[in-house]
Amino acid sequence: MKRTDFRFANKGVLAFGAACLAAFLLLASCASVRGPSVKVNAFDTLDSDALVYMSVPVGVHSELTNSLVKTMVGSDLSDKYVKNVTDSIERLYIGIGSPSDRQRLQIACDGTVSTASKLALATSGYFSKKMQSVSSTGIYPVFTENRSGVQLCAPGSDIVLISPDITSQLKRYDVEANSQIVSSFASVENMNEVEWKDSEAYKFVGDAKTNNIRLYMNRPLSFITNLLGTSLSSSIFHLNYIEGEFEKLPTGKYSVDLNMEFSKDNLISKAAAFLKVALLMTDSKVVQNDERHLSVQGIQVSLSQMQKMLGIN
Prior knowledge:
The chain is built from ten helices and twelve strands. The chain has helices spanning 13-30, 62-73, 79-87, 115-120, 167-181, 188-197, 200-205, 221-228, 268-278, 303-309; strands at residues 52-57, 91-96, 105-110, 127-133, 139-145, 151-156, 159-163, 213-217, 239-248, 254-262, 285-288, 293-301.
């Protein structure tokens, strides 16, 4: 397969999140939390209108995650320090963009904090701290990075939230936590979540059992164009969404499977024919599942290509 540029979002968007992971160690080591102390699914803290969702199981993809952290936080960091960062996190959930703000970024880290990680950034003058109230019971310590303005908060012992504006994520955390504490607790926010939690995006990206990286995109044409290294006609590839699954192979490469949903029935045969020609020199397969769903299975990419796709230089 020809060498292509795999970036699907603004340059460095996901790498920006990696730079925040080091700050997570400081936050987890010194934050005291007031508010509900319950287990909240980290993915539930992301807003339901993101253009892109991604989940990354850190342990299985440690090499990729370590390079992400080391590249953005500093190439002079020791491997031991980087390992302390990534060992603290089990999974990253990322939401990028919204219909009204394509630059919006929300990150939720799921995992416990090791003693080594707590000691890694025991003191720092890079953050300012304030208590933020999102409800009558939810008062949380929010740390703001002084230069970038990025906000971080650990509302629970096994979850860390990161965003330039963390208010929405904190509110969602608080609603989820209260709904578990008080069985009769009801709110407009919870009622509106029923449809979201039954959606394809939620079920696919929010699955914490998989060891594969998963990606869901609402506006995916540019991603497919970059992946194939050729221009695509929007009149043919009129897509509702794309699901991407990235499996790490024993060889160190990644196998990419894509599932596409088309908006019209008459487009899929033309799209299938186009993809078969574009992928002729690869081992991948193009399968038409039904009148509106097409899958591409087994596109192999290298670690460096994955890094480029995630915005790592």
